[in-house]
Amino acid sequence: MSQPDPSILEEVARLRAELEDANYRYYVLDDPVMTDADYDHKLRRLQDIEAEYPELVTPDSPTQRVGAPPAEGFPEVEHAVPMLSLDNAFDEDELRAFVKRLGERLERDGESLVFCCEPKLDGAAVSLVYEHGVLVSGATRGDGRTGEGITTNLRTLRSVPLKLRGDNVPELVEVRGEVTMSHSGFENLNARAREEGGKGFANPRNAAAGSLRQLDPRITATRPLEFCAYQVARLEPDAGIATHSELMARLRDYGFRTSPALEVVEGGQGLLDYCRRLGEQRDELGYDIDGAVIKVDDLRLQRELGFVARAPRWAIAFKFPAQEQTTRLNDVEFQVGRTGAITPVARLEPVTVAGVTVSNATLHNQDEIARLGVMIGDRVIVRRAGDVIPQIVRVLQDQRPREAREIVFPDRCPVCDSQIERPEGEVAARCSGGLYCPAQRKEALKHFASRRALDIDGLGEKLIDQLVERGWVETAADLFRLEAERLAELPRMAQKSSENLVASLDKAKHTTLARFIYALGIREVGEATANNLARHFGTLAALMDAEVADLEAVNDVGPVVAEHIHTFFQQPHNRDTIDDLIAQGMQWEEEEIGERPQPLNGQTWVLTGTLESMTRDEGKARLQALGAKVSGSVSKKTAGVVAGPGAGSKLTKAEELGVDVLDEDEFLKRLESWESGESDA
């Protein structure tokens, strides 16, 4: 057996110190300093070294235990059955190897084994003990053997039964599960914290853990926490239950929530198929998961397989690509949006997050920079979930370099040098250059020509950039002064394509009042609001002269939007541009005044997948303007589901329930019919 050299001994000592510190901060302080990916990588490295040099294994190694001792403030609770961790599989080959190991140990074909699979929830693990059907104690995982008694806090969770359902309850049952916080609950919690001048949580997992460990249970009671059961540690008497999946069904009978994505599958291929399906659905679940938990379903086989030092042999966690990673903030640049909003963009040291290389992340606004306390040069944790724009969620301030420098928000527009203003009560700082700012000019023209606005065929982003950069177009009205002969001078613009664009511009002059209002790009005026404004006022002149109170009388227009609309039409340069557009031939028929029809009143609709012609929020707004309620889940009461590319479990459930499913083309046809009043739902 080879002897480790001093460098190996130093690495082992360093890894153990880092992992123990991470454990303490994660489990005790709820203040993680290491991402899951970093922790997994370091733990795997330590496991590899100890496997090569068994003499280095010590009882206090992080590979031999889970977590850290409980914090002060709660009574210690010793777990009758240790709350152990699981070994991890990071790719499909490792998952196949797990099945093969089980087969060899049981002396049977691994493909004949039956497994119970469910999402690996990303929250806080707890244990609940019931005697004669009544909750008597609840505790955190702690170090796996001793946790913190938080019974009073757990009793505040509505998803934790205080008394088990049914007459035939066991004398004793210990139920384990995860306390989580949904994405919507997390966003609402942080929004309340910001309104009250407090500091929000970095992610739902931290929010769940921190909420459980409040010394005042009244605070815990206000937090949107949910408990999901995933294991029975003790059951007396055992009632002859033979499989883990039967135990989960029994827990549901007792009144516990278990994962709706739990499935029983056979063999390695069944496991791979499940993990792939779950990975595809991950971004639509509404709560965080970081993989799948896989268990041999047969309890007798579980007992036969037994345990290793820190984990059961009969279970494994299949880990998805991490949605959070650590990197360095190298610089911050400021971008100007279509409405003049100044957005700070973090330039990051490139890092792979959730399978995608990330080098930029949004910092949202000046308030967010202050809330994070971030500085250029900091080590930061960046998060990317699904198609969400990557964002910095946490700063590792204890790793801040000496040369770190503050982020200075500009007071002049980085594009046109106009003064930057921050309206009272708003979080966004804005360039005051309006239509004169080239950055806003380009974005405003792109919006003006977009499909849902004037739908000017052939007027794409690159062409708009050229027109603005050459000074040929300064306002939307200048588009209608373009001539085919001059356009043909542009790169990749032959005479025929130039003539086609002019024809398209001529066609776009004949539109509807609602489309024209939407095309103007007034802040927070989407298609649904534009339709409501057109229907309510009937003419552009009436809308332009409306006071704030008149605007607030329009369906779906509140005080903030009313103020935006009124301010827009009070600006002389905006009125000049509108007059110029009309002089260039823009025209529409006057709308019939009256409230918009509500053909979907009382109906519930669901949007899933990606829409190409509009965002999901825009689709939601248009449905709501027609009277519909838009839900995040499918049930028998759902009137219809709009399914775009990437639709997952919601589409499957709709098909199972026989709910009407529309693709995007059919959805657009029906919208036009409903909005025109030509058809009832």
From TrEMBL:
Top-level class of the enzyme under EC nomenclature: ligase
Q: Which Gene3D superfamilies match?
A: 5' to 3' exonuclease, C-terminal subdomain (1.10.150.20), 6.20.10.30, BRCT domain (3.40.50.10190), DNA ligase/mRNA capping enzyme (3.30.470.30), Helix hairpin bin (1.10.287.610), Nucleic acid-binding proteins (2.40.50.140)
Catalytic residue list: K120
In terms of PROSITE patterns, this protein maps to: BRCT, DNA_LIGASE_N2
The protein's UniProt keywords, in alphabetical order, are: DNA damage, DNA repair, DNA replication, Ligase, Magnesium, Manganese, Metal-binding, NAD, Zinc
The catalysed reaction is: NAD(+) + (deoxyribonucleotide)n-3'-hydroxyl + 5'-phospho-(deoxyribonucleotide)m = (deoxyribonucleotide)n+m + AMP + beta-nicotinamide D-nucleotide
Give the required cofactors. Mg(2+); Mn(2+)
Task: State the source organism's domain of life.
Answer: Bacteria
**Do the record's keywords include Transferase?**
no
EC number of the protein: 6.5.1.2
InterPro entries attached to this UniProt entry: BRCT_dom, BRCT_dom_sf, DisA/LigA_HHH, DNA_ligase, DNA_ligase_CS, DNAligase_adenylation, DNAligase_N, Hlx-hairpin-Hlx_DNA-bd_motif
**Name the UniProt record assigns to this protein:** DNA ligase
Q: Which gene encodes it?
A: ligA
